[in-house]
Amino acid sequence: MVDTVGQVEFENALAIPPLDRGTVGPDGVREFRLRAAEGVTEFTPGVGTTTWGFNGSYLGPTLAATVGEPVRIHVENGLFVPTTVHWHGMHLPAEMDGGPHQVIEPGVTWSPSWTIDQEPTTLWYHPHLHGETESHVEMGLAGLFLLEPEDPDRFGLPHRYGVDDIPVIVQDRQFTSSGQFTTSTRGFVGALGDTVLVNGTAAPYLEVTTELVKLRLLNGSTARTYRFEFDDERSFDLVGTDGGLLEAPHRTDHVQLSPGERAEIVVRVRPGEQPVLRSISPDLGMPGPIAAMNGGSDRLDIMQLRAAPVLEASAPLAERFAEISRMNPSDAANERHFEMDGLQINGQSMQMHTVNEIVEVDTVEIWKVRNRMQFAHSFHIHDVQFQVLSVDGKAPPPELAGWKDTIYTRPGVIYELIMRFEDYADPDTPYMYHCHFLAHEDAGMMGQFTVVEDASTAPKVIDIPSRDDDTAPFTGHGGGH
Ligand SMILES: [Cu+2]
Q1: How far apart are CA 60 and CA 289, in angstroms?
Q2: What is the whole-number distance in angstroms between the Cα of residue 191 and the centre of ligand 1?
């Protein structure tokens, strides 16, 4: 069990990843440049850790585009191994998705483009190379991708990046005695670190200068689930989940996120106070001793907020946001079942050439997902944001009532999800669905689906370009290059 509550000194100012709005070229496309490369990061002054980052040594810039805009991202692989970059939560053509089929070889630049066509929200990007996702994310390859509304002043939500709209990328890491990353402490869920980094900062504090501050929480960890709360158990407003705003702020005193999930919360502070964001014993739904081996008893100090002696007034938060139009189960053209058992889905492991599910374009489907184990899993679907119809036959709780792309699947519980596969038919390029515990995904707990015009003629086997180093193992943390 890890317990750092009350022991973290909060001596480092929280790093804010640079906001990158790219540049709009003559063709009207907003263009961004990312370069993945190895570097050295000092999480502790004087101790250099070998890390990977985009446009820097650890993590990457926060990309931002406005809903409706065409974008193009030039991703250069400056590493010594192949990688990919997946736009988690993004609705886009499969060949732009950055999954296991869009490999970027060392020295190569990949330039996907699409038009932002979904609700404003907090997305993120990270590698998705089959079998290597955990190691690449652990080394530091991840960043946020903000989809902004045309009218940022709407609903009274704080929206000044780095001032009252704060990225909070939470990751746990374990360090060797020489200060290098290691993933040697593992539960069934994967690597569990004893040091929390927020935006790559250990023991962070955030100076708050406004009455209301919005935190964009991303669980950027590979395996750990957090149950975020404040040390004084204050309540705050949960305003958004993975794919967009809730219909109304949900007043609560905690929010639980499994790997890959996001939550936007608005916190009110009083002058001079210093509340601590922490994670206390996430409810994993596993039997006690098993939960304890997977972080279920862990208590972690995350970040201190330091409110200024005088705070700038904030606009009042709206009591209601926009209505979410509910997808109707009677409109569903198809119902599929996904049984998670062991490290497989429906008794199958990920095969690069196998299309497990074929979906017809412009249809609504219901996916029923069940984790048959006593151990934790989660379920993430590419391309779409889904709505949760039911959890264990009951209406979803407020935190699952909005748009989601990743959901924690408690043992034994059936999650009924509904989604629309609006466009981008392509019978030859699959999207992924998978457990977002990255070690499970790497072990093959993943399947592929295509979105096609005509399911009766779509291939169930696809060609995959051969790669010389297809089976080359990851050379390990700490590099040596
Ligand atoms: Cu899993």
Answers
A1: 37
A2: 12
Helix (H) or strand (E) holding 139: helix 133-139
In angstroms, what is the span from residue 386 Cα to ligand 1's centroid?
19
CA 410 to ligand 1 center in whole angstroms: 11
pLDDT digits (tens, 9 = 90+) for 67-115: 999 999 999 999 999 999 999 999 999 999 999 999 999 999 999 999 9
Give the residue among 81, 78, 5, 13 at the shortest CA–CA distance from 45.
13
Three-state helix/strand/coil letters over 397-460: CHHHCCCECEEEECECCEEEEEEEECCCCCCCCCEEEECCCHHHHHCCCEEEEEEECCCCCCCC
CATH of 155-312, one of 3.10.180.10, 3.40.50.300, 3.30.530.20, 2.60.40.420: 2.60.40.420
- The model's pLDDT over 121-138, given as tens digits with 9 standing for 90+, comes to 999 999 999 999 999 999
- The superfamily in CATH containing domain 329-452 is Cupredoxins -  blue copper proteins (2.60.40.420)
- Which segments of the chain have a pLDDT < 70? 466-481
**Rounded to a whole number, what is the distance in angstroms from the first to the last CA of the chain?**
35
Here the tokens at position 237 are 């407003």
Separation of CA 130 and ligand 1 centre (Å): 15
Where are the alpha helices (H) located in 168-245, listed in sequence order?
none
Report, at the CATH architecture level, how domain 12-153 is classified: Sandwich (2.60)
Q: Quote the pLDDT of residue 463.
A: 87
Q: Where in the chain is the domain with CATH 2.60.40.420?
A: 12-153, 155-312, 329-452
Question: H helices within 261-344, ranges in order?
Answer: 288-292
Length reported for the chain: 481
CA 440 to ligand 1 center in whole angstroms: 5
Q: How remote is the CA of residue 399 from the centroid of ligand 1, in Å? A: 21
**Torsional class of 317: left (φ above 0), alpha (ψ -120 to 50), beta (otherwise):** beta
Q: Which tens digits make up the pLDDT trace of 251-268?
A: 999 999 999 999 999 999
